[in-house]
Design brief:
The chain has a single domain, classed as Rossmann fold. The chain is built from 10 helices and 9 strands. A 9-stranded mixed β-sheet has the order 1-2-3-5-4-6-7-8-9, sandwiched between helices. It is globular and about 50 Å long.
């Protein structure tokens, strides 16, 4: 199946669509129905309901100002509350696990995490936040939707909504989860990640909320958005006190034009003091803008982000 996101304009404007595949097993943590639940209500007693090694679906959750959505939680096998398990928060939750709701096959992130192995330290708890379908582009963009990609579309001129969406993520979702799930919840153990627009949103979130997210996993981030506005935005922020950043891009993305932009961001960060111990730039010569490429690159990306 061809993925329209190989074209950056199509990636922005096309909502995710389900692929035909056997449904992945998931355990609902609340009744999925027409009435969305406030986060505070949905997470009551959550720690006692989570089963290690099982993918759980929380919600639908009410997100003020946005469409209701599911949050997918995966607690790794061998989880013990006395161990400092990291938390990895990711955008586009529909694509992270099984194939049933991903555009062209899921990342199977739960399997990847389990294969990292105990010798690499405590495995992360995964928190996947579903996107808002047709509103995905706005909720993952911190910038107004201007320029050629949006000309002659209904999106042109609309403001990005990432700031209020991140406020809900940090002040509501993660704050409530922190009260229920026994994790360190320190910047050094809490990371944010995503691909494409989710990768751009993750990098932005790391600099905007360095007291929450001590690292970013940015696979094929859409850094070209709004005339590379993220470069100017990051230049206005000080270096986070705790920071590990993974950046990558494939040689087959946007006819080879994405990789130089992402490499330029890596070079900019190096100029600001990021060394090889805190910054990993990976060029995947044969990589495309698709789940298969991101899934293949994830094991190495996770080991770096988690300091393994």
């Amino acid at each position: 199946m061809s993925d329209p996101r190989s074209n950056p304009v199509a990636e922005l404007l096309e909502p995710e669509k389900p692929a035909a595949a056997a449904p992945a097993k998931a355990v609902p943590l609340s009744v999925e129905g027409p009435k969305p639940l406030p986060v505070a209500e949905a997470v009551v007693g959550l720690a006692g309901r989570l089963q290690p090694g099982v993918l759980h679906r929380l919600g639908p959750l009410a997100v003020p100002g946005f469409r209701p959505r599911l949050v997918r939680l995966y607690v790794p096998r061998g989880f013990h509350p006395a161990r400092p398990h990291p938390a990895l928060v990711l955008f586009d939750g529909q694509n992270l696990f099984g194939d049933d709701e991903a555009y062209a096959g899921g990342w199977h992130l739960d399997r990847i995490v389990e294969k990292i192995g105990a010798r690499c330290g405590p495995k992360p708890v995964l928190i996947g936040i579903d996107h808002g379908e047709t509103e995905r582009i706005r909720e993952l963009s911190p910038f107004p939707l201007t320029g050629p990609p949006f000309r002659d579309t209904a999106y042109v001129g609309l403001p990005g909504l990432l700031d209020p969406f991140l406020a809900w993520v940090t002040d509501s979702l993660l704050a409530q989860l922190a009260a229920e799930i026994p994790l360190p919840w320190l910047p050094s153990t809490t990371f944010v990640g995503g691909s494409s627009m989710g990768g751009l949103a993750a990098l932005y979130a790391h600099f905007l909320h360095p007291n929450v997210f001590g690292g970013a996993l940015a696979l094929s981030p859409s850094l070209w958005l709004a005339d590379r506005a993220l470069f100017r935005e990051i230049a206005q922020h000080p270096n986070p006190p705790v920071s590990r950043i993974y950046l990558d891009a494939g040689g087959r993305e946007d006819r080879g034009r994405l990789a130089p932009v992402v490499r330029a961001m890596a070079d900019r960060l190096k100029e600001r003091g990021w060394g090889d111990d805190r910054l990993y730039w990976r060029f995947d010569r044969l990589g495309g803008h698709d789940e298969a490429s991101w899934r293949r690159r994830l094991p190495r990306a996770l080991r770096f982000l988690l300091g393994r």
